[in-house]
UniProtKB/TrEMBL annotation, chain A:
Lineage of origin: Bacteria, Bacillati, Bacillota, Tissierellia, Tissierellales
Protein name: Uncharacterized protein
Tree of life domain: Bacteria
Automatic annotation (TrEMBL), chain B:
Annotated organism of origin: Tissierella pigra
Domain HpaB/PvcC/4-BUDH N-terminal: 5-275
Pfam families: HpaB, HpaB_N
Protein known as: 4-hydroxybutyryl-CoA dehydratase
InterPro entries: Acyl-CoA_Oxase/DH_mid-dom_sf, AcylCo_DH-like_C, AcylCoA_DH/oxidase_NM_dom_sf, HpaB/PvcC/4-BUDH, HpaB/PvcC/4-BUDH_C, HpaB/PvcC/4-BUDH_N
Sample GO molecular function, one term: oxidoreductase activity, acting on the CH-CH group of donors
Residues reported to bind FAD: T191
Amino acid sequence: MKVGIKYCGGCNSRFERTTIAEKIKADYKNLEFSYAKEDEEYDFIIVINGCHIACAGLHDLNSKKGFIIIRDNDYKNIKIRIDEIL
Amino acid sequence: MALMTREEYIESLRKMNLKVYLFGELVENPVDHPIIRPSMNSVAMTYELAQQEEYKDLMTTKSHLTGEVINRFCHIHQSTEDLIKKIKMQRLLGQKTASCFQRCVGMDAFNAIYSTTFEMDKEYGTNYHERFVNYLKFIQENDYTVDGAMTDPKGDRGLSPSQQEDPDLYLRITEVREDGIVVRGAKAHQTGAVNSHEHLIMPTIALKEEDKDYAVSFAVPSDAEGVIMIYGRQSCDTRKLEEGADIDLGNAQFGGHEALVIFNDVFVPNDRVFMCQEAKYAGMLVERFAGYHRQSYACKTGVGDVLIGAAALAADYNGANKASHIKDKLIEMTHLNETLWACAVACSAEGSKTASGNYLIDLLLANVCKQNVTRFPYEISRLAEDIAGGLMVTMPSEKDFKDPEIGKYVEKYLVGKTGTSTENRMRVLRLIENITLGTAAVGYRTESMHGAGSPQAQRIMIARQGNLESKKEMARKIAQLDLSKDN
């Protein structure tokens, strides 16, 4: 499966956003991850926001199964949501 | 390529033939000069973060002119969301550099000139807007840093530009030719001038018809014939010249700068002229640039984040972090910093569309935002100094600390909380010194006071925008005043 990763801009992150992405990549080695680009289509897109405001722009991003919007570092819950979509 | 890398930016500056003077000497290589370099590193960060996936959402956007991905610093705001992302980008860069990163003035000038030229053309049938759009495409395509230059030296503040004994104390048109104009004068306090590819000039005050030669907006390359920059010195700046300087700098990597930029009969071709003697529109351009730039002081919340963090670390190293008054002071610092942020968000969220299509911040709230900035960083600094303790200004130098003879005494007697490093304690205290009274205090304190207009300039705008008459009417109705009883 092709999975897009999109970050917010990180102006006032409550946690290290890249660590979350690294954890996901390590736990789902069977998935094909890349940074979400607007001219490509993904099976789903993980949007990693550094706070609850979740301001990352999703305009023009294409996803077959929707978006997983992350706004905290509750990794257990993040995994549940990824597993649900899989 | 619409996005330059950090390295490409540095090399592009190196290729310019800038005339920069510092300590009375022409600087042969401004890019690598130890006093200038940290300020260039701050601008370079605006390029570096734009290349990183985890910051792109703030640092880049799509040009409404070309559809290409561009650095947000070259963008014309297309929505209130754009205005909010602008200030988030500025807070982020404040956090990353703890300094002034200098690129905001250009962005604010772009947006002010964009809408003003549109409205000017509508009245006069001129083609300034088209010229400016073409210029902006050139800037976006090359990802240039631009010094948006407004402040004239101003001489006798009681006299208008044309009444000054020396007519050059406000930048002016000295000749209008068929192919362009010739200008003479200077712009003072020019943030990032030496790190900029271009200077984009605007008038400094609203003007009357008799001052029409001062109503001028144009762009020139920073190394244009007749342009001279004199670098502004900063508190503690020569520490950067000390051999192996590191701890004593507080912030060895980053800084900001201002320069006095002289225009000695500089020729500007017509395609780079965006206002030429239209005195009526000088006020609009000044008001809009000032409004955008007062919103831009959101950057100070990012520097404030670093200062609050440094004060908290100082308390940790002092072993005082559990004291209730220390905790309360850190809360107060955060409260003040987030109050600054709240006004920056508010003036952005309440922005509105101009006739040209770009978005302008709410001018009243932007002025309230900046008015707070003239005060709160001083109080945040005072609290940081309170928490840090007097050692931040009495501490021996790095050379003493590293000296084989006496270093052991500095190590022994300046240690803080058991088990912590003396060097780390010194580094944190020097960072607080740097922001509150060293080189970065130029940006965090006095620039907060006077940048984008001194406090009184905001109070004039607050009075203009405050809608006092309608407030009086509200009070009249509630109090049930019978106006016929008044003489």
